[in-house]
C-alpha cells in the first residue's frame, strides 16, 4: 500500500466510526451520600470493578456540604482516585438538596448557583473529569430548572441535567446541552407503577426533541424499596436484558446505569462496599449480591460502544436472580405494609444464558419438577415458575453438563420483614 492509500484507509475508518460514537461512554450513578468515610483506595476498588466491565466513569450524586459535610472530601477523593485509575467522574447535583431558589439575598446569583460554580471550578480541570464535546460534564437528579448560563459564562461545561419530562427539552431556557432521563423503569410518569414490560416511550421523546444533542439514557436492573417514606416496587423483573437491547436499538450518545451503589432502591450492581454507611437498607440489601448482573452488562456495554445491534458472547455463562419469597407470603414482624405494586409481580425465577452455541437449560425450582428448554446462542433471558426451596440450574450441550449448580439462597415460604430485592448469582 502507498502512503496515500494508507491515509485514505485511515480517514475512511475515522469517518465510518463517526464523531459521536467516538464520545460514547457508559457512566454509573454513585451515591456519595453513603460513603462518608471512604478512602481513596475504597474508591479505587469500585473503579477497578466498574472498569472491568467497560464502565467509563461514575456520576457522583451528592448533596451540598450544608447537608453532608463530607461532600467536598469525598468529591476530592473520587477525583483523585479517578485520576490515578484512568477512570472518569462528573458531579450529579442532587436537587432533592441543592436549590435554584433566590433566597441568598447578598448574592448576585441564586444561592446555589455560586456554590455550584465554585464546586465545579474546584474539580473540573482535574484529570479525572469526564468530558463531552470538550466540556466538563455536569448533571443533576431532578433540578431541571437550574439555569446553566451563569455557570457557562465562567466554565466550559456540558450540562446534562435530569429532566422529569421530555417535553421540558422543548420548553426550558436554561442553557442545557443535553438531557438525562430517570425513567429507567416502566411508568406513566413520576413514580406511577404500571405493569411491565419496559418500553422506550420516554426515550423516544427525548431523542426526538433533543435532535442531535446528547441523550444520556438510563439503564437499571431492578427497583424495590421499603422505607416508611417510600415503599414500592417497579415491575421490571426482566429489565436488565430488555433495557440493554433497547440501548443497542437506540444507540444514544451516552448511557447512565442506575445505579452503582444505591442499596436503598435495590438497583446496585457494585459489590457489597464494606465501608459504606447504612441508611436502613441493609434490611433488604445485606447478603443479597448483585455482582453477577455485571457479567450480563459487560458484553452489552461492548456492543453499545461498537455500535453493534447484538452482543457478542465469547464464553458460556449463566446468571440467575429471584426474590427470597413468593409475593403473597405475609411477613410476620414488619412495621411497614408490603410494598405497593407487588400484586403486579410474577412469581418466577429468571435465568440469563450467555451461550457460544445452542444448549439445553434445566431449572429445578424447589419441589417443582425440573423444566428443560433449548436455548439458542447469544444472550437469552428465560423464566420459570417459583417453587419454595433450593433452586438448581444446569446447562447441557450435546448431553454433557457444561455449567450449573445450586442458587445461593433458598426460596422461603415464611419471612419476618418484606424483601422484594433480588438475589443474583451466576456460573
Ligand atoms: C427554579 O427555577 C424555576 C424557573 O427558572 C422556577 O420555576 C422554580 O420555582 C425555581 N425553584 C426554586 C426552588 O426556586
Ligand atoms: C475544594 O476541594 C477541597 C478539597 O480538595 C475542599 O476542601 C474544598 O472544600 C472544596 N471547595 C469547594 C467549594 O467545593
Ligand atoms: C470547550 O472546550 C473545547 C475543547 O477545548 C472547545 O472545543 C470548546 O470550544 C470549548 N467551549 C467553550 C464554550 O469554551
Ligand atoms: C465516619 O467516621 C466518623 C469518625 O470516625 C464516625 O464518627 C462516623 O460515625 C463514621 N460514619 C459512618 C457512616 O460510619
Ligand atoms: C420484631 O422486630 C423487632 C425489631 O423491629 C424485634 O425487636 C423483635 O424482637 C421482633 N420480634 C420477633 C417475634 O421476632
Ligand atoms: C431440545 O432439542 C433436542 C434436539 O433437537 C430435542 O431432542 C429435545 O426434545 C429438545 N428439548 C426440549 C426441551 O425442547
Ligand atoms: C417469562 O417469559 C415469557 C416467555 O418469554 C414472557 O412472555 C414473559 O413476559 C416472561 N415473564 C416475565 C415476568 O418477564
Ligand atoms: C453436538 O455433537 C454433534 C456430533 O458430535 C456435533 O456435530 C455438533 O456440532 C455438536 N453440537 C454442539 C452444539 O456442540
Automatic annotation (TrEMBL):
Gene3D superfamilies, alphabetized: Glycosidases (3.20.20.80)
Domain of life: Eukaryota
Family annotation (CDD domains): GH71
GO function terms (MF aspect): glucan endo-1,3-alpha-glucosidase activity
Statement: the UniProt record of this protein carries the keyword Signal: yes
The keyword Hydrolase is assigned to this record: yes
Protein's name in the database: glucan endo-1,3-alpha-glucosidase
Provenance organism: Mycena rosella
Species classification: Eukaryota, Fungi, Dikarya, Basidiomycota, Agaricomycotina
